[in-house]
Every structure is written in C-alpha cells, then in structure tokens.
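Reopening this one. Same input as before:
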Amino acid sequence: MPIIRFLTVTGLAALEFKASIAVGLTMRLGPFPTAVAASLGASLDTLVILFLGEKIRNLVMEKHGRATRSSRREWLQKAYARFGPAGLGLLAPLLVGTALGTALGVSLGLRPRPLLFWMVTGTALWSAILTAAAVGGINSWRFFFHQ
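Same output, byte for byte:
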C-alpha cells in the first residue's frame, strides 16, 4: 500500500508539484517519502519536457526562423542574463512550476545539462522546504487545537 501512495504522489508531482506534497501528507505517506516522491515526479516532468522541448523548438525554428523581438521576450532575456540558468532552475519550481520553467529554459535556448541540473536542484530544495513547512503547520495545528 505505501508503494501505491508513493507512486500516486510521484505522478501528481509531474502535474502539480506543490499540490503533491499536501496530498502525500494527507495520505499519511510521511514527510521524507513525500518530499522524495514530489521531487522525483517533478524531475521526471522536467526530463520529458527537456527531451521533447528541444526537438519541438528545433522544428519551429527550422520552419519559422528566428522569432521576432517583443518587450516580454526582451524582459525574459534580461532576467536570464542577470540570473542565468541557476536563477531559473531555483525559482521556477516554486513560482511557475517545473513544466513551464523547463519550457521557458528550452525556449531561451539553454543547454540541456545545466538546465536539468538546476531544475532538479530547485525541485529538491523546494520540495524539502515546502514539506517541512507543511509538517510544521500540521504539528502547530495539533498543538494549539489538541487534535
């Protein structure tokens, strides 16, 4: 039965990283297995998008050529120039999710290995932080309301 819970949290993390932590704790999976499952699922999501995204980007670039400049794209490129792949990989799992963060990295033309490294690192970091915060909140609730 615990393996089914673990796989459920892993699969959910591929779709919605932050919700998978709450679901794992609700299913009484335990803090450490929940954090590992959430991190693993989101990392698998990153791998799939990185693998497919590079091929899709190459096809679009062959067909349509270089994209036109827009103010939104210029802003994104300025942010990337300032913080690099580390900034994207560490902040994307929390702010926009692993799927969109990886897709943004691929669209910016980042090399796959640094992008993968920083997305997995960010996913593991935020998984640990969010799981610890959720467990702390649950324990505080139990302490103050004696449940």
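So the earlier flakiness isn't reproducible anymore. For the record, Helices lie at 2-15, 17-26, 31-64, 71-95, 98-107, 112-145.
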